[in-house]
Design goal:
By secondary structure, this protein is α+β, with helices and mostly antiparallel strands. About 25% of the residues lie in helices and about 15% in strands. The strands form two sheets. Strands 5, 6, 7, 8 and 9 form a five-stranded antiparallel β-sheet that branches. A four-stranded antiparallel β-sheet has the order 2-3-1-4.
Length: about 425
């Protein structure tokens, strides 16, 4: 788990991360509100929605209306340059799901499916109900920063007769020593990432996407994750993982001058097909944390494994979380303060030829094994313009001596090509499927 991530918590009045996220106006009239926003706003006034007439009380007195809570009001746009769910901050709830096309389904069926999925994603991200057979699970909620992201696996191109359009970057990932991969929970023709700051909104989207698949595709695997809810801390902070460590201090930031070059495929790329312009490659790994073993270590020993203080994320060489790590600093005995095999040292871009990835993970807990061992860890999702130069470069370095490796196990894996965002009137993947 490279030492890179996005801060988990955001201010209560959650500002847009970029042009892809806007908050609804506080002066919007009732007529401009969707059904979900209307009822969600009623909740913000303090009315008891469970009591008879609660929503009616709101509609009878629109002049007293107040906006949705900041969490419910957050909205990400669907029609953007890069698909949503890549640069947005960490979301409180997530679902990752892979589909395989049904027997006999090909390019035509795939195009129809992506058209349905794109329209459903657009509606739900705007706080609207699904076009048909909406389940009403999210009836009372606002958009809650919902994002839905779509990608294509290596096998998709064979199934649809589009082998000539398959990017070289989708070649299978190499094997790593920490891999204990379950093939049934790895890869897939299609991949969907769903995230939201409300669990019911996220589940609502998952159910809608599954229903939209119809007879064209079936679920191959599905995983559920979570992060801290925005606003749960006194101020925005880097996320903590289930090991209790701040996880992601050195994640690339959109303001970095080389951010786009590292994360997104350029429109003039000579290595990638034209349909991948403004897209990215997602590596997905289910990484089990061996928490029983980890928690037997003292805090000092845990900090030696990571190379950072557990309390505030600062490097063991001193300073604050954002202070540059001094890799040469030694203690009174002449030993390196940041151990040579510390996770944070090994994952630094300057230790990997400049390789960097944008990590946007979810934690997971799938219950307790019969022997009492927690099945918990990280649904690792990272983004890069080139997975060979990004994830593979960093993971190979970790494979050669990361102190953290004995406390984690990679149990599933996937690599997906995620095209750029759909323009208005388009669906995701249209430039591939209708070329």
């Amino acid at each position: 788990m490279p030492d890179q991530s996005i801060p988990q918590s955001r201010p209560e009045a959650r500002p847009p991360v970029d042009a892809a996220e806007v908050l609804p106006s506080e002066t919007s009239s009732p007529e401009g509100l969707t059904r979900r926003r209307l009822l969600g706003t009623a909740g913000a006034t303090g009315l008891a929605l469970g009591a008879a007439g609660g929503a009616i009380g709101y509609t009878a007195a629109p002049s007293q209306a107040t906006p949705l809570s900041s969490i419910g009001a957050g909205e990400a746009m669907f029609h953007v340059k890069h698909q949503p769910g890549i640069t947005q901050g960490l979301q409180a709830r997530g679902h990752l799901v892979a589909f395989d096309l049904a027997a006999g389904a090909g390019r035509k069926e795939a195009a129809a499916l992506l058209r349905r999925w794109s329209e459903t994603a657009r509606r739900l991200m705007a706080g609207e109900a699904a076009a048909t057979d909406d389940t009403d699970v999210a009836r009372d909620a606002g958009p809650s920063s919902l994002t839905v992201t779509f990608g294509f696996g290596n096998s998709f191109f064979t199934r649809t007769g589009l082998e000539k359009q398959r990017p070289v970057a989708l070649d299978p990932l190499p094997d790593f020593s920490s891999d204990h991969l379950d093939k049934a929970r790895s890869n897939g023709d299609l991949w969907v990432q769903i995230g939201a700051d409300d669990a019911l909104v996220a589940f609502h989207a998952l159910r809608a996407i599954q229903k939209d698949a119809g007879k064209a595709a079936k679920v191959r695997w599905q995983m559920n994750g979570f992060n801290r809810t925005p606003g749960a801390t006194a101020h925005p902070m880097t996320a903590r993982n289930l090991m209790g460590q701040m996880d992601g201090t050195r994640n690339p930031k959109p303001a970095d001058s080389d951010f786009d070059r590292r994360i997104f495929v350029p429109s003039d790329s000579t290595k990638d097909p034209a349909w991948m312009a403004d897209g990215s490659y997602a590596v997905v790994r289910r990484i089990r944390m061996l928490l029983d073993d980890w928690e037997k270590l003292s805090v000092k020993a845990q900090e030696q494994v990571i190379g950072r203080r557990k309390s505030d994320g600062a490097a063991l060489s001193g300073g604050t979380e954002t202070t540059a790590m001094d890799l040469e600093k030694t203690d009174a005995n002449g030993d390196l303060v940041v151990p040579i095999n510390a996770h944070a040292r090994i994952t630094r871009p300057d230790q990997n030829g400049g390789a960097a990835i944008l990590r946007r993970p979810f934690s997971y807990h799938d219950g307790i094994d019969p022997d009492g061992t927690p099945d918990a860890g990280l649904l690792f999702v990272c983004w890069q313009a080139d997975p060979l130069r990004g994830f593979v470069t960093v993971q190979r370095k970790l494979d050669r001596g990361d102190a953290l490796s004995q406390y984690i196990r990679h149990e599933s894996s996937g690599l997906f090509a995620v095209p750029g965002g759909a323009a208005k009137g388009e669906y995701v993947g249209q430039r591939l499927l209708e070329a």
